[in-house]
């Protein structure tokens, strides 16, 4: 069978190119294994070429007034809004999340690009009083230079745009290395930036493996900042590698996000939230609800409600609006999740699902049942990130035990509590060790105008999106303007001047 699959090149210096002798790979629709696009397996040399192009474009872009850079981003957002129906479908075809979520992925991109476009008219610095007369002190923000954005497949448009739009409005130039599994989404996003008038070399795309392209970008001395979202083991490698070059390495890694459910909660509300949090995007969000920590007094009742509702939950074609959950993203994902389900069957009690779905259309794709385990805290499935539709439900006596269990994992990204007790809710905001806490809402659904990220092994202290996006991609310069026309000495003159 000769495939008629659409072919994409690398985007370097404003041109789509296919280097001579380039090898190619295809991305695959996880619903039916049909190819979605064909891409260049970039090499170390391609990565270096892209960094060169980004470096050459840097001065011109840095000197473009920030409001003008913002205007170009606004045009990107406008075009992305037009492309949303098609791009949302591409997300669903290439990654497998249901269409409403595919469209949501694109909407999150649009929201963030618009937010960052406005940042072009802010990029605030500070003014600070001087200890000396006739002297101004202030700070200005400057771009870092060439930044590398290395992104995962689970939010194939939103996460790249969180990084790219923030890096561009602040005056950096970018080399973008997307997850191979969702290279088509990446290429379609880059095309929109190109068509909106982002100058050549300002945004470059190099598809290919992390071992070749990713490492070459991290090692390149001209790359000053690496922004990476992905798994914790790769994140650790990226951090160590970047440390050699003393780079800023921004990491957004895993989660094992708890929902705490107390006996005074609105159980109907919690039911909707837990289902969406645990099985939305087939559990393949860093923010997915992977632990449900329930007070003993309502444990059996709520578990009954949960399994009852799952009985009416459909898994299938993600383009069909009636489908609750699509396939998992790839054969590798399927295998890893099924392995965890086997581990769970040995160490915990299976309460729902637990199988690969087979027969008919299921056989063409990677479908797994939504799965629930009742488990004690401390099992592997209750502590390790599975990144799939597997929920661990844990019984606790009271609020204090719930918080102890919630916090006793290596991650700290998102967290949630359902309660009607306002004091408890505020206490939880204080007690939960996580970068994000939801009250009476599930662990997913962060909005772009707030910082996003986590503590412990979820990252290395940074945040992206919201006001933090500007921090991620700028250097602060402190400026002293002395208009006294004489040599004034800080620390020395100020003491004697009194
Ligand atoms: C992720 O899974 O890495 O809060 C990002 C959410 C989305 C972003 C998730 N807005 O679930």
Characteristic terms for this protein:
498 residues, alpha/beta, Aldehyde Dehydrogenase, Chain A, domain 1, Aldehyde Dehydrogenase, Chain A, domain 2, 2 domains, binds 2-aminohexanedioic acid
What do you see in this structure?
This protein is an alpha/beta fold and 498 residues long. It has 2 domains: 267 residues, Aldehyde Dehydrogenase, Chain A, domain 1, CATH 3.40.605.10; 183 residues, 3-Layer(aba) Sandwich (Aldehyde Dehydrogenase, Chain A, domain 2). It contains 15 helices and 21 strands. The strands form 6 sheets. The chain has a 7-stranded mixed β-sheet, with helices on both faces. Helix 1 crosses helix 6, helix 2 runs antiparallel to helix 5 and helix 3 runs parallel beside helix 4. The site of 2-aminohexanedioic acid has 9 residues, from loops.
List the helices and strands and how they pair.
Layout (H helix, E strand, L loop, with lengths): L9 E3 L2 E3 L6 E5 L6 E6 L3 H20 L2 H30 L3 H21 L7 E3 L5 E9 L2 E5 L7 H12 L3 E5 L5 H13 L7 E3 L4 H10 L3 E7 L2 H13 L3 E5 L4 E5 L5 H13 L9 E7 H15 L20 H17 L1 E4 L18 E4 L5 H4 L6 E7 L2 H9 L3 E2 L1 E5 L3 H10 L4 E4 L15 E2 L11 H6 E9 L10 H5 L1
Helix pairs in contact: 1-6, 2-3, 2-5, 3-4
This protein binds 2-aminohexanedioic acid.
Report the total helices: 15
- The mean pLDDT is 97
CATH superfamily of the largest domain: Aldehyde Dehydrogenase, Chain A, domain 1
Radius of gyration, Cα only, in angstroms? 24 Å
Proportion in β-strands: 15-25%
Number of domain units = 2
CATH architecture name of the largest domain: 3-Layer(aba) Sandwich
Overall geometric form: globular
Helix content: 25-40%
């Amino acid at each position: 069978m000769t495939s008629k699959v659409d072919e994409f090149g690398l985007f370097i210096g404003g041109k789509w190119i296919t280097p001579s002798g380039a090898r190619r790979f295809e991305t695959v629709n996880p619903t039916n294994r049909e190819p979605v696009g064909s891409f260049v397996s970039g090499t170390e040399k391609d990565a270096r070429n892209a960094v060169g192009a980004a470096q050459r474009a840097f001065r011109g872009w840095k000197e473009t007034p920030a409001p003008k850079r913002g205007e170009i981003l606004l045009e990107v957002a406008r075009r992305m809004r037009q492309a949303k129906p098609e791009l949302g479908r591409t997300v669903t075809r290439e990654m497998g999340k249901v269409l409403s979520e595919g469209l949501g992925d694109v909407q999150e991109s649009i929201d963030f690009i618009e937010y960052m476009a406005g940042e072009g008219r802010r990029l605030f610095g500070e003014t600070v009083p001087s200890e000396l007369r006739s002297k101004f002190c202030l700070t200005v923000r400057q771009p870092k230079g060439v930044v590398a954005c290395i992104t995962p497949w689970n939010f194939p448009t939103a996460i790249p745009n969180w990084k790219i739009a923030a890096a561009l409005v602040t005056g950096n130039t970018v080399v973008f290395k997307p997850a191979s599994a969702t290279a088509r989404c990446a290429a379609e996003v880059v095309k929109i930036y190109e068509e909106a008038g982002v100058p050549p070399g300002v945004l470059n795309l190099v598809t290919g493996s992390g071992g070749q392209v990713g490492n070459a970008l991290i090692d390149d001395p001209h790359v000053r900042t690496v922004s990476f979202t992905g798994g914790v083991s790769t994140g650790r490698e990226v951090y160590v590698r970047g440390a050699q070059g003393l780079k800023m390495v921004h990491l957004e890694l895993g989660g094992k996000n708890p929902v705490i459910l107390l006996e005074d909660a609105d159980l109907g509300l919690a039911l909707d939230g837990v289902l969406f949090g645990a099985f939305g995007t087939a559990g393949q969000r860093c923010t997915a609800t992977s632990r449900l920590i329930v007070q003993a007094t309502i444990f059996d009742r709520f578990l009954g409600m949960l399994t009852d509702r799952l009985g009416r939950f459909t898994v299938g074609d993600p383009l069909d609006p009636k489908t609750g959950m699509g396939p998992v993203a790839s054969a590798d994902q399927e295998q890893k999740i099924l392995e965890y389900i086997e581990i769970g069957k040995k160490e915990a009690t299976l309460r729902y699902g637990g199988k690969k779905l087979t027969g008919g259309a299921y056989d063409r794709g990677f479908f797994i049942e939504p799965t629930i385990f009742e488990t004690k805290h401390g099992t592997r499935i209750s502590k390790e990130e599975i990144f799939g539709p597997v929920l661990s439900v844990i019984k606790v006596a009271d609020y204090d035990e719930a918080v102890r269990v919630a916090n006793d994992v290596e991650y700290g990204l998102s967290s949630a509590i359902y309660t009607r007790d306002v004091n408890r809710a505020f206490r939880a905001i204080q007690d939960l060790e996580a970068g994000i806490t939801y009250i009476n809402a599930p662990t997913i659904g962060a909005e772009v105008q707030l910082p996003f990220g986590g503590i412990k092994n979820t990252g290395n202290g940074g945040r992206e999106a919201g006001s933090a996006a500007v921090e991620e991609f700028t250097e602060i310069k402190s400026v002293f303007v002395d208009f006294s026309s004489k040599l004034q000495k800080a620390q020395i003159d100020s003491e004697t001047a009194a």
